[in-house]
Design a protein that fits this description.
alpha/beta; five-stranded mixed β-sheet; about 180 residues
Length: about 180
């Protein structure tokens, strides 16, 4: 199984680049997965994701009722997303996956999107805000643990209790609105 962790974001919009920053920090922490980075959505991602079996995305998000640095895991069936999963200027990640399948490409399974709340104000700058930076170690530990569990599950599906239920907790977004 070949897995890709894709960090997304804009490196010149401060906290919007959190996905890129976290992916960089995960580069040497997660065995069994490649790490890539992209500030773009749409057809530009084809070259990055084709050839992988599994895809995880890390990106910034904004939602009401959440605090800066709060982490949400969004699963493929949720069909909602983070700042860079959807685009008013092109294909969103779900349309891209569908298009790839229609053209006969073997597209990766989108196993999860890790959305990190950045608040409603986005500022220019090449570094993360103090508030988000303070939460970064805890966010990285949580994502690392979940990625390792997910990758182990793909390799060894015997991660079930005696009733056949998945024992790994799912952090599913429940109704947050994303920009």
């Amino acid at each position: 199984m070949k897995a890709l962790i894709l960090g997304m974001g804009n490196p010149i919009l401060s906290d919007d680049g959190v996905g890129l920053a976290i992916a960089e920090m995960l580069r040497y922490r997660i065995r069994g997965a490649d790490v890539a980075f992209s500030p773009m959505i749409g057809l530009n991602l084809f070259d990055l994701i084709i050839g992988y079996d599994t895809l995880f995305i890390i990106d910034a998000m904004t939602a009401q009722g959440t605090k800066v640095g709060e982490l949400k895991k969004i699963c493929e069936h949720d069909r909602c997303g983070t700042l860079h999963l959807f685009s008013s200027h092109g294909l969103n990640i779900f349309e891209l996956m569908e298009l790839g399948l229609r053209f006969g490409f073997e597209m990766p399974r989108l196993k999860g999107v890790y959305g990190i709340e950045i608040g409603s104000e986005i500022a220019f700058g090449g570094s993360l805000s103090t508030e988000l930076n303070e939460r970064l170690p805890a966010i990285i530990e949580e994502i690392t643990a979940d990625l390792i569990s997910s990758l182990e599950t793909d390799i060894s599906p015997v991660m079930q209790n005696s009733q056949g239920e998945n024992v790994l907790p799912q952090l599913i977004n429940a109704g947050a609105k994303f920009r």
